[in-house]
Amino acid sequence: MSKSMAVITIRETGQTETGFNAVLVIDGSNYQITVSDPFAPSEEQELEWYFEQWLRRPILE
User: Global pTM?
Assistant: First the structure.
C-alpha cells in the first residue's frame, strides 16, 4: 500500500514589524502562523559567511 505525501503550503497574509503573518496549510487544514527572523545582525553575518563563502570553498579555509 502506497501513502501519498502531505501537501504543505505557506501563504503570506500581511507584514509585521519583525516579519510576516501567514497561513500554513497542511493537507487542507489551515494554521495561522507568524514568521520572523530568529537571528541577531551579528549572527546573520556569521551565517552569511558560512553559506556564501565556506560552503563554496571549504578546503581553502
Answer: 0.60
- DSSP lists the bridge partners of residue 11 as 23
What pLDDT score does 35 carry?
95
User: Parallel, antiparallel, or unpaired: how do β-strands 19-26 and 8-15 relate?
Assistant: antiparallel
Mean pLDDT by 10 residues, the chain (61 residues): 83 94 96 93 83 65 53
Q: How far is CA 13 from the centre of its chain?
A: 16
Domain residue ranges in the chain = 8-60
Q: How many CB atoms lie within 10 A of CB 14?
A: 8
Work out the number of other CB atoms within 10 angstroms of the CB of residue 10: 13
| Distance of alpha carbon 33 from alpha carbon 13, whole angstroms | 10
In angstroms, rounded to a whole number, what is the distance separating the alpha carbons of residues 10 and 22? 6
